[in-house]
Known about the structure:
This protein has nine helices and eleven strands.
Amino acid sequence: MIEVDSANKLNLLSSRAGFNLALRHFKRVLAFSSEIDEGENLADLLNEALDESEIQENQIRPIISSLLIQKFNYQFKSHNLIESVNFSEKLIETLKQWTAIELVLLYYNPSSEISVINPKNQANLENGLRLVKDELLVAYAGSAGEEVPEATLKAAAEDFLKLLYGEDIPVRDDYKSSSAPVSAPEPEPVSKPKAPAPKSAPGKRRVTTKYGVQVTNEVFHNGNVEAWKKIIDSYTTSHPGTEILVWYEDEKINDINALFKWGKVKHGCPIMFSVAGEDIRDVSKLKKYLFEGASPRFEAFLRGAVGSTLDLF
């Protein structure tokens, strides 16, 4: 009788499916490694790959461990947030001066989903990214080009958290590159045939990061609520298998009508949303419509017969 070692870590490779799964993962890791060497931020690379369904969420932590920790010697600081915080213009502008430091954040949100974030990315501000109290945030700091001492990287990870809470932290000289980056000349545009967009593998449900929609109406009243319901219905109807998740003040909203009943959502307040599903598309278009639905122009979405679905997407 042949004994099977259930603890054998290579069992995954014994089947064709397992071998191909591992091979695809290794190829992506090698590609990411080359792009990091060229100055790319791993958070941006991972989010792009997730959007294109080239990787799945369960690959994020192994990729971060193998690349940031093992290969590129990033230093990190784990932290449970002591208060909810938003990204600010001041924070992003300060971090952009850290030209010698590359930063990647791993955030575990209240829905138990993992978000990977480039804190220097202006989109964090535009999307109203909010990090919620008590949730786990891991800040990774690495060298952006020239090698930076480990002690400096550890200090950068800790200083980032201080900046996140609004402290004034002067930009240290060792956080700045000794040589100004030189812009590469733009290549001549070459016309290439577009490859068809990759289709998401079935059964791979994921959740996008949270996007912020600022209320520009005087209050978010019943008309705005009805407009949002029509917009969301249009999106989920045209994108089968998707779900729109809504949050307000860190609370998940299961019934959008509650936003009107509470009477708390006034001009300038952000309402957050995420999209969950397998084949997630048209998020920017959805955000644009939700913004209009939270504005004085909400009536444009109330047209049509009762129970009818708008053709927005």
